[in-house]
Write a structure and sequence with these properties.
Helices cover about 40% and strands about 35% of the residues. The chain is an alpha/beta fold. It is globular.
Length: about 110
């Protein structure tokens, strides 16, 4: 399955919507989209993984790398997913303690404004 990545803005927050499978073949697309947002000065990011059906360690690596990138610019990167199979990947790796994970895009965007 392919990966589709799009973005929208909700105030100062940029929401990156991801759908499909994030693996060694598709992760570079996600990295490229996130890097373009950061390069454009959009460092308050919400990555919506609700429509992601699979994510491997390559996908996690992209997210960790972008988290470090935005934190270096006093930004934030929050994750949206209520899917158990995606949340399990974060829990197994301990990254659920590193990322702020929300069940909905609205909750993640509101957390930014708090």
């Amino acid at each position: 399955m392919d990966l589709s990545v799009s973005s929208s803005e909700q105030g100062a927050v940029t929401i990156v919507h991801v759908a499909g499978e994030i693996d060694v073949y598709t992760a570079p697309l996600l990295r490229e989209v996130l890097d373009k947002q950061v390069a454009a000065g959009r460092t308050d990011l919400v990555v919506d993984l609700e429509k992601v059906t699979f994510m491997d360690s390559t996908g996690l690596g992209v997210l960790v790398g972008r988290l470090k990138l935005v934190r270096g610019q006093n930004g934030t990167l929050r994750i949206v997913s209520a899917q158990e199979r995606i949340l399990k990947v974060f829990k197994i790796t301990g990254l659920d303690k590193v990322f702020h994970i929300y069940p909905t895009v609205d909750e993640a965007a509101e957390a930014s404004n708090a």
